[in-house]
From TrEMBL:
GO biological process, one term: proteolysis
Keyword annotations from UniProtKB, A to Z: Hydrolase, Membrane, Protease, TPR repeat, Transmembrane, Transmembrane helix
Repeat region (TPR), residues: 157-190
Protein known as: Beta-barrel assembly-enhancing protease
EC number(s) stated in the UniProt entry for this protein: 3.4.-.-
Gene label: bepA_4
Transmembrane segments: 12-32
Domain of life: Bacteria
Pfam families assigned: TPR_19
InterPro entries associated with the record: TPR-like_helical_dom_sf (IPR011990), TPR_rpt (IPR019734)
Region entry Disordered, spans: 41-84, 188-209
Keyword NAD among UniProt keywords: no
PROSITE patterns (alphabetical): TPR
Organism of origin: Enhygromyxa salina
GO molecular function: peptidase activity
Amino acid sequence: MGSLPVSPPRKLPWVPIAAVAGGLVLVLAFAFRDQLLGPSDAEQADAADTEGEVAEPEPEPTPEPETQPEPEPEPEPAPEPPAIDPAELEAKITEATSLVNRQKYDDARVIIDEVLAKIPAEGRALALLAQTQLEKGKLEDALTTANTCVGADPNQSFCWITVATVEQANENFPRALEAYRKYLEVEPDGQHAKSAKKQAARLESKVEG
């Protein structure tokens, strides 16, 4: 068997291949132009706007005001101790009353002044002072003390009878009538009740007609 004749090698079509390859390069270059050339100005602006929108923080919620605790009430101050011990006060009033009843007015005055120096509005001490002043003929002093007395303690009947007696002597009949009536309200069956009723009746005819 004879050998077959060998055909000469065929030339490759380089021109068409080169054309195709060049077309592929153009296509790839167009497709990947962003990676090769970077984003355009418009795209960069859009990206910047997008980033700006994303970067804007959300407004923080308004914090609620803190509730302040109410201040605790201040403790009430402790009551001041009495200026004089109650038992001592009663003992001094009893002693001064005994001295006045025995007409020892100067001795009684020492105790009365001691009590009033500590408790100026002590009604019983004021009544005893008015009595000593009245007995010594110091009518205006007695009237001043008696008015202070009924202002501090309206239940001191002797102070009312003192006001009535002195104001009647001063011809201040309306005030005298008022004082006689107050005395009778406080002590309707008291030591001076009979005289107070008689004097009140006389003054009513003058004051009220």
